[in-house]
Design brief:
Elements (H helix, E strand, L loop, with lengths): L7 E5 L3 H6 L5 H22 L3 E8 L7 H24 L2 E6 L7 H13 L6 E9 L1 H14 L6 H7 L10 E4 L18 E4 L9 H12 L9 H4 L1 H7 L1
Parallel strand pairs: 1-2, 1-5, 2-4, 3-4, 5-6
């Protein structure tokens, strides 16, 4: 595989419910298998040198899903915190939960805060979990914070007030499940990200699939509004 590793990868983990439905299982069963896929993804990112991994675990729109699925997801999150955090801590992973916590159950909120505190000293990989998150919410809360502080709203000040201001913007955004949209994920931060869409459902997205996405990313030229010649003047002179 190419050695061009993205500093920050963001993932829309789509397809857990469909994976379960195709196997005549309850949708929450797909989310449980999805946790296994996420565990492998986190470990692989740490092994290959990715410094930041951000995943979309639960959107602000997901509250409209069937009540049994929502309650199952809350229970699964609480269980995953108790089971996974000690191992993530041992592997040098720092956990950040990103999103609106005000409507989450008290037990869940306490678990999120404890997981962040337990891993605060780790530096190998920053693992952002977007839970009850929406890109529009993120922009709105940043603007509201600046207004409350009496600060001017500019691109720079908004960027600093975003919920992911502690990490650089994602280099690569991956979406599984065959859909080709952002679904209100990192709308501000992904302005210059590269996108990779996979037909694999999230429980099927293994380390080989992740390597394929990174290999595809490594073949792209990121210009950030500039021309190829501006990025590599020497190559331009040789071509001439």
């Amino acid at each position: 595989m190419s050695t061009s590793i993205p500093h920050h990868i963001a993932v829309v983990m789509d397809g857990n419910g469909r994976w379960a439905t195709r196997r005549f299982l309850p949708r929450v069963a797909g989310h449980k298998v999805g946790v296994d896929a996420l565990r492998a993804c986190v470990r692989h990112c740490g092994d290959i040198g990715v410094k930041v991994l951000t995943v979309f675990a639960f959107s602000s729109e997901n509250w409209s899903r069937p009540p049994e699925e929502v309650s199952g997801l809350m229970e699964l999150l609480a269980l995953a915190l108790s089971r996974e955090v000690p191992q993530l801590k041992a592997e040098g992973v720092r956990i950040h939960f990103v999103g609106d916590r005000s409507s989450l159950p008290v037990k869940v909120r306490k678990g999120l805060a404890q997981a962040e505190a337990d891993t605060a000293g780790n530096q190998r990989l920053v693992f952002n979990i977007c839970f009850n998150y929406g890109g529009r919410w993120d922009i709105a809360q940043a603007a509201a914070r600046l207004a409350a502080e009496g600060r001017a709203i500019t691109e720079e000040s908004l960027a600093g007030a975003m919920s992911l201001a502690h990490v650089p913007d994602p280099d690569l955004v991956i979406r599984t499940g065959g859909e080709h949209r952002l679904s209100n994920f990192l709308l501000w931060q992904s302005a210059y990200s590269e996108f990779y869409f996979s037909d694999k459902l999230w429980p099927e997205f293994d380390t080989r699939a992740l390597d394929a996405a990174i290999e595809d990313y490594s073949r792209r030229e990121r210009r950030f509004g500039k021309t190829s010649e501006q990025l590599d003047p020497k190559a331009a002179r040789k071509a001439a």
